[in-house]
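Here is one chain, start to finish.
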Amino acid sequence: MFKQDLRDAWRGLRRTPIITFAAVLTLALGVGATTAVFSVVHAVLLRPLPYPEPDRLVELFEDNLTTGSPMMRVSALNYLSWAERARYFDAIAAVGSAGFTVTDGGDPELVSGSVVSASLFHVLSVPPIVGRTMQQDDEHRASPRVVVLSESLWRRRFGGDPHMVGRSIALDGEPHQVVGVMPRAFREVGRSQIGATGAAQIFVPMRIDRTPENRGNRTLRVVARLRPGVPLNQARDEMRALAAAMEQEFPATNASWSVRIDRLTDTMLDPQVERSLRLLFSAVAVVLLIACANVANLLLARGTRRYAELSVRAALGAGRGRLVRQLLTESACLALISGAVGVVTAATAQPLVRALMPAGVPRLDEMRVDASVLAFGLVVSFVSGLVFGVVPALRASRVDLSRSLTSAGRGSMHSSGARLRRTLIVGQTALATMLLVSAALLVQGFVRLQRVALGFEPANVLTTRVSLPRSAYPDAARAVQFYDGLLTALRGSGELQAVAIATSAPFAPGVRASFRPPETGRASAAGIGSQVAAEHIVSGDYFRVLGIPVLAGRSFDERDSSESAGVAVVSRRMARLFWPDADPIGQTLERAGRTHEVVGVVGDVRGSDVQGLRGGGPDREARAAVYFAASQLPQRTMTLLVRPTGEPTSVINTIRNAVRQLDPRLALQQTRPLRDWHADSLAPTRLTTTLAAVFATSALLLTSIGIYGVLAYTVASRTREIGVRIAMGATARSVTGLVLRDGMTWAGGGILIGLAGALAAARLLATLVFEVTARDPITFATVGSAVALVALIACAVPAARAVRIDPTMAMRSE
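Its structure:
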């Protein structure tokens, strides 16, 4: 019986090739788009982490109780205290980002790396591909230097040589013995792969400086594995109590600081990207529903045309259940064909989807059409088959033999079928309107985001990073000497307007620090505690390179040497926060026990805010910022910023040659124009906006096709009626109005329902649109008018066809 149903279904689909092709194409696009987006959601949000018992993995942060701002980084000494005192963890580990210059296996290359505690390998419980992991003894300063390679670096630079274990390679000019190679999954430690140096390719043991002053230096990420059976809330209570005890024990560095614990799966993804993915999946699901409605309308029309055939079958003894089963079998075949085409489309579109995703989305390389995604595509196809097939099947199988015999099957289903088709049009129009309102709001927000004043000029600026090996630059004096020589050489090249160094560029990952207000002044009197501010260590021309205005005082210059008194420059927001009723010039700030005099005030800069290891973006308000002189606080790894006279990329060789002349062992990393950093900061918003606009346009197109199809079928089924009207003297205007009124009434109802739905859902968009009211009346009115215009155009073609009906031919055909 089932085989017979399949044969009949295949014959039925072949008898109406145009309807079959249109239904397959419409549904395949809906299923393909939904499956493609789901493959991203599955890889990034749903797939379990590639570790044993991933639900026991957590990440720990330090919380500033005064500002309510969580620090993604943790003090090294606080980490040691937690590791010694916490009872509810199997193991607790620390990770710090670093860059290493590798000189073995090819040309010098600056690669990303992590300084990790040996316990990290126990926390994640991932075995090495070859060799061993780190051990506790490797952390001792007297122990030989060892390194664990990532699988990607091992294969790319060393050809996957299995005999690498035991060999010595030079990192920053110092020999390190390779003890093991870790698989690709090991890099997924929280969000650390989005750090300043990218995904970690080298792991070296952490050797912590236990100097008491180091407790306030928050530079590490901390992850842990809960003991079996320990609930997360119990661990949270323990850590809060531990933080309170440490606040009393170390008041100078831990006052007003607590601990927050989140599951590792919740901390890996930036919340903005997560919201964007959920919104996109909702949008593509709406497109799929509209596609299903279109296919349902096609099948309703097809079922009406087959009414005579179904009546004959009923007259020959086929029960209603038999007819429903036959029609559902046809719908199932249609759904499976569409699903297969859709899944193939989704697999083909994988590279395009991956390219559209913003940089830094974790686990994006795991996106593929695997068993889970394939199962999702098949389930979506099956459910879609039920959605668009059940109602038409039930409607078509409701056969009245007496009416079908007297009317020869003409129009027997017209009234009830037309109501259902029009109801589907209302639903389609409502969904498309909601999606268009959301897309319009996102587009407005993105346009405003691109136009927002940054406080600096990113155009025509090139950035690159240089990391000095500790072996060749063991003290601050040598680091200062190198960077002074580099700046001098570049200034004399004639190709650059200005050149500077800094710990990070705007939009790139940076550092936050906690500062206390002065003991006197309104800030202190108001009880303002320590404040988190973006910290930058820069050279004097930094503000000139970026075009940041100096509002008061001065920038750094030759007076600010390592022997002179410490100086600082603060942003306008920092000045207003700490010295609202006084001149900030001449005031002092404390950093790591050293006093710095404020010598200048500069404009606020968007993009210098630091959210953990991720750079800030123009959508965030400018955070208070403090700038220190690079000559007084030299760092081994610095970002070079240059403003050339020509295109930014035209001076790359000039910079590379200047570095090699000073030290041929050094390599440049992350050499790119600052405008690219700016573009990366906009990437999540751009992705959401672009795909939402594409899906909304697709939804509107499908809806217009649906309106056209229903009206075209209605005109065809009412040919005799319209012919009679024309024969009785009806004008072209009245006939056109009849058709337009029929279509626009239902489309207008859908528009009103869609606008009401968009208004109710406005709160969901409030966090995704920038400086745009989610209930903007102009946007709602514009979208409503646009949908009405498209619906009018879709109605116009059937209306024009109705006017051209020949009454004589219509009566003769009947």
